[in-house]
Design brief:
The chain has 2 helices and 7 strands; from the N terminus they run βαββββββα. It has 150 residues and is α+β, with helices and mostly antiparallel strands. The protein has helices spanning 14-21, 119-138; strands spanning 2-10, 34-38, 49-56, 59-71, 75-81, 85-95, 101-111.
Length: 150
């Protein structure tokens, strides 16, 4: 099992950062070879279920997740409900000076068939992948440089 924490301070309001990070289908835009399906009707709240399907053709896996805590615009906690990837994730968004948000992404992650000796490389890969996703979701609009809405 791997536990990691990522932190970013971004030139977005708390609300803008929150909307970008909790727009589940948008995560597929920043995670390669992944598509997201939300299985429950909007709006997002406790009990919302979505599935990240990662892979190509028959080589892939589903990562079903359920929102178990929902306190917009500051805290969301997810539990991974899959048989392959397990654990939880927590997204916290806080004000950080005028017009900025501090984002903390905590995650505990396990891949069931991997023994503990793979925890260190899994941790490195997860920090890179989730950090890249977080940066992509929070990136300012490339055309204007402005940190607009989602």
């Amino acid at each position: 099992m791997v536990l990691f924490r990522l932190e970013r301070v971004v030139p977005l309001s708390v609300e803008q950062a929150w909307l970008r990070l909790t727009d589940w289908p948008r995560h597929a835009d920043v995670v390669p070879l992944t598509r997201i399906t939300v299985r429950t009707p909007p709006p997002t709240g406790v009990g919302t279920v979505f599935v990240a399907c990662t892979g190509v053709g028959p080589l892939g896996f589903d990562d079903p997740m359920e929102v178990v805590e929902w306190r917009p615009p500051t805290l969301c906690r997810l539990v991974k409900r899959g048989g392959f990837v397990t654990g939880w994730a927590e997204i916290e968004v806080l004000a950080h000076g005028e017009g900025h948000a501090a984002v903390v992404w905590r995650e505990e992650l396990a891949v069931r068939p991997l023994p503990a000796l793979f925890d260190r490389p899994l941790g490195r890969a997860a920090r890179w992948m989730f950090g890249r996703a977080m940066d992509g979701l929070l990136r300012p609009d490339p055309d204007t440089g402005v940190s607009g809405g989602p």
